[in-house]
Specification:
mainly alpha, 6 helices, 3-stranded antiparallel sheet
């Protein structure tokens, strides 16, 4: 898969540009997560990239997302539900993208499965806490 450091292949779950991570432009990146993110994207390992994205800004401690009392997997699921409810067109595009770009070398295929599971669910009745 070709990749441009100034574009993201999918902007709901991979919203930070590789260039921004490389240059630490406006963000402070935790390692090894930043390196994993920038390596996983051009290699098409999007489960790894999303997993790294949720860790690289330093918001995860002892497996929990800071201030949210939930695991990274739970946070990804909650974000997927939120995207499906409030941005269904872009969520559908993201799901299609990930289905088309599955990679057997991905170390975190469960991350994509979380997104696919939300896609199969009726989430219309799920109430989520406000963001922030």
């Amino acid at each position: 898969m070709s990749h441009n450091d100034t574009e993201t292949p999918e902007y709901l779950f991979l919203d930070i540009l590789v260039k921004q991570v490389l240059e630490q432009d406006g963000i402070q990146v935790e390692e090894p997560w930043g390196r994993l993110y920038i390596n996983a994207i051009p290699e098409g390992r999007f489960g790894d990239a999303i997993w790294a994205r949720y860790h690289m800004l330093g918001d995860v401690e002892d497996g929990k997302v800071e201030g949210e009392d939930m695991t990274v997997a739970e946070s990804i699921k909650q974000d997927a539900i939120r995207y499906k409810q409030h941005d269904p067109e872009d969520f559908d595009k993201a799901v299609s993208f990930y289905k088309e770009h599955m990679n057997s070398g991905d170390g975190h295929p469960e991350v994509l499965e979380i997104i696919f599971e939300v896609d199969r669910e009726d989430v219309s009745g799920i109430k989520l806490p406000p963001v922030g």
